């Protein structure tokens, strides 16, 4: 069995990132707002640990990574390095991407 390619990964996340159901649209908008808030608080830098506190509890977890990936593919976020994931889970010490916000993410990017 072969490992999925980055294109396959992006396609799956793209399908999640464009899910039309209202709960998914609301989740993506909440992620967009959390990213913008985290970037404002951290001089344009965004990580899982800086976004997480701004996410409402009702956000669909699958929407978080999909929205971040869509923002990356759209050029709104550029990966600049790696940092500890943080948080209360066993994944706290695992590496997580650090992104720099390149420009404001408009609401229209969360269909």
Describe the structure.
By secondary structure, the protein is α+β, with helices and mostly antiparallel strands. It contains four helices and three strands. A three-stranded antiparallel beta sheet has the order 1-3-2. It is globular. The termini are far apart. The model has no long low-confidence stretch (mean pLDDT 83).
Strands, total number = 3
Given as residue ranges, the uncertain stretches (5+ residues, pLDDT < 50) are none
Strand content: 15-25%
**General shape:** globular
How does the helix and strand content classify structurally? alpha+beta
Radius of gyration: 14 Å
Mean pLDDT over the residues: 83
Report the sheet with the most strands, covering strand number, pairing sense and barrel closure: 3 strands, antiparallel
Distance between the termini: 35 Å
> Biggest sheet: strands side by side, in what order?
1-3-2
Strand-and-helix sequence, N→C? HHEHHEE
Helix content: 40-55%
What is the tally of helical segments?
4
Features:
3-stranded antiparallel β-sheet; 3 strands; alpha+beta; globular; 4 helices; 111 residues
């Amino acid at each position: 069995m072969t490992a999925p390619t980055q294109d396959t990964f992006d396609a799956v996340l793209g399908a999640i990132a464009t899910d039309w159901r209202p709960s998914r649209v609301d989740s993506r908008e909440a992620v967009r707002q959390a990213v913008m808030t985290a970037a404002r608080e951290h001089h344009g830098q965004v990580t899982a640990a800086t976004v997480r506190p701004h996410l409402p509890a009702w956000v669909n977890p699958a929407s978080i990574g999909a929205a971040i990936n869509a923002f990356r593919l759209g050029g709104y976020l550029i990966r600049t390095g790696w940092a500890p994931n943080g948080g209360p889970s066993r994944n706290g010490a695992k590496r997580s991407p650090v992104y720099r916000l390149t420009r404001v993410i408009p609401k229209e990017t969360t269909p």
